[in-house]
Amino acid sequence: MSGVPLGAAVVLARGRETRLERLAPRECARLLVAINEVAKEVRRYDVLAALLGLLERDALAHVEARVADLDRLLAGVPCYWLTVREGVPAEATGLLRELAGRAKEAAS
Known about the structure:
This protein has a 3-stranded mixed β-sheet. The protein is built from 4 helices and 3 strands. By secondary structure, it is an alpha+beta fold. The chain starts with 8 loop residues before the first strand and ends with a helix. α1 (25-41) packs across α3 (61-74).
């Protein structure tokens, strides 16, 4: 199977200001796993209960394996938290273009 090399991982969020913050790969991996679970499963109560089960020491042991896999994938990739000020998407677009340009240069 072929694909495009990953140039960067960016987690988007609303914020009071538009800013880009570098994340450690492990933190990025945890955010991506949590976001993925919530985004695809929040419509079901049983999943909410499972997410709350993360607070228990031995609950959902597979989550740690998924975080570890993502952590390995992201180890060589810059990870960012991008907050976007409401009503000013162009600010974020500019930052994303800059990131894409850096990733393109690094791949060359």
